[in-house]
Design a protein that fits this description.
By secondary structure, this protein is α/β, with parallel strands linked by helices. The chain is 46% helix and 15% strand. The protein has a seven-stranded parallel sheet with strand order 3-2-1-4-5-6-7, with helices on both faces. Helix 2 links the parallel strand 2 and strand 3. The longest helix is centred in the middle third of the chain and has 29 residues. It starts with a strand and ends with a strand.
Length: 227
């Protein structure tokens, strides 16, 4: 059955390959990203019924406008994916500037909350929909040099599991660890070692079918995309 997929964070990496794979499988994707150039490329490549908007998810007013536009043209999303995130430049926690820490928290936590605030009420009114908030292995463990990122992803785990307890039957909120994939973010963390991990394209071949199979019974379960 054709589904409406809403993705926050579609410009590159996992967001881009998920978009391509969902569309290849016949689903409709509405996505956002901060980069106007990336959004223009997506809009040219994938026309109606798909839509893409330039949105800073850390800005609640921008997310509200985007959500209103999507919901005016479509039913509430069958699958809502919060993928957008930043990672800090590797450094001991005390060397992270206030500005860098604040920006990461604004995107990785407040941005997810903004998307939930403006899309989930419509799904609740319909009493259906799956919400997937991307966590990380670093949302369930820790490593040095990435303290701010770990902080944000542990928060996503708690936020999502709490949300799961508030949803009506027929819905689910799931914190999802995507696994370790060779993205620009992993390059930042691991350098040349990042090249030993699977590509986003390889990951999408398993991840997208996995996402499409999520059900209300998965509500609150901390899941991981199969390796």
């Amino acid at each position: 059955m054709k589904k409406l997929i809403v993705i926050a964070g579609v410009s590159r990496g996992l967001g881009r390959v998920m978009t391509e794979k969902f569309i290849e499988l016949g689903h409709t994707v509405c996505g956002c990203a901060r980069s106007p150039e990336a959004i223009e490329r997506l809009s040219q490549e994938f026309g109606n019924p798909h839509s893409f908007a330039t949105v800073d998810i850390a800005d609640d007013a921008q997310v509200k406008t985007w959500a209103e536009s999507v919901l005016a043209q479509h039913s509430p999303p069958d699958l809502l994916i919060n993928n957008a995130a930043l990672i800090n430049e590797p450094a001991p926690l005390w060397e992270i500037s206030a500005a860098e820490f604040s920006q990461l928290i604004d995107v990785n936590i407040k941005g997810v909350m903004n998307v939930i605030r403006h899309f989930v009420p419509a799904a609740i009114a319909r009493q259906s929909g799956i919400i997937v908030n991307f966590s990380s292995g670093w949302g369930r463990s820790t490593s040095p040099q990435v303290g701010p990122y770990c902080t944000s992803k542990w928060a996503i785990e708690g936020l999502t599991r709490s949300l799961a307890q508030e949803l009506p039957p027929g819905m689910a909120a799931i914190p999802l660890n995507p696994g370790i994939i060779h993205t620009e973010m992993l390059d930042t963390c691991l350098g040349k070692e990042a090249e030993t991990y699977i590509s986003p394209q390889q990951w999408a071949e398993k991840a997208v079918p996995f996402l499409l199979q999520l059900k209300p019974k998965d509500n609150g379960s901390p899941l991981t995309v199969p390796a």
